[in-house]
Amino acid sequence: MVMVRIPTPLRGLCGGAAQVETAGGDLAAVIAELEDRHAGIRNRLCDENGSLRRFVNIYVNGEDIRFLAGLSTVVEDGDDVSIVPAIAGG
């Protein structure tokens, strides 16, 4: 199983869970599984074209997927996926 860490702003969509286990595959499959189980989460992560939203960062085992294969990044049993919303400040 792949452990997906859910940020506080999205936990309401996941029944309050801070972590959710998924089967893996690539990140697009992980997001599809999350959407099947927690309707509405995909729209918070991806835009209407299916691309990751600018203000959402996803890390696999601590590595930013933007420097890997994006949503095509393969995740396997034991991997850790962290969803991190970008924070603006000044």
Description:
With 90 residues, the chain is of the alpha+beta class. 18% of the residues lie in helices and 28% in strands. The strands form two sheets. It has a five-stranded mixed β-sheet, with helices on one face. Strands 3-6 form a two-stranded antiparallel sheet. Strand 4 (56-60) and strand 5 form a beta hairpin. The longest helix is centred in the middle third of the chain and has 11 residues, at 27-37. The N and C termini lie far apart (39 Å).
What topology emerges from the helices and strands here?
Elements: E1 2-5, E2 19-22, E3 25-26, H1 27-37, H2 41-45, E4 56-60, E5 63-64, E6 74-75, E7 80-85
Radius of gyration: 12 Å
Poorly predicted regions are: none
Biggest sheet layout: 5 strands, mixed
Distance between the termini: 39 Å
Mean pLDDT reading = 95
Number of strands: 7
> What sequence of helices (H) and strands (E) makes up the elements?
EEEHHEEEE
| Shape designation | globular
Strand content: 25-35%
Strand order of the largest sheet: 2-1-7-4-5
The number of helices is 2
- Helical residue percent band: 10-25%
Features:
two-stranded antiparallel sheet, 2 helices, alpha+beta, five-stranded mixed beta sheet
Tell me briefly what this model is.
This protein has helices at about 25-35, 40-45, and strands at about 1-5, 20, 25, 55-60, 65, 75, 80-85.
